[in-house]
Automatic annotation (TrEMBL):
Species of origin: Pandoraea communis
Origin: domain of life: Bacteria
Protein name: Uncharacterized protein
Amino acid sequence: MSSLHPLIALFENRAEVLDATGQATHADDAIVKLASWMELAKTRLTEDDMAVLADIGAILYRDSLKRRMGGKP
């Protein structure tokens, strides 16, 4: 039995599916999907929802930028 939170386990499972199907996805793909979904859902999301999702997008963006710059801050 896994001690992972069910949503973390879902993320892990989806990552395994992406790997198994050979989908070459990157953080930039996740950023675009997140931004697109946020735009579509903005009338249904609270300010707190948007803030949390914006933080997630910022983390992905920052990590992706660092990777493109060769790990430099």
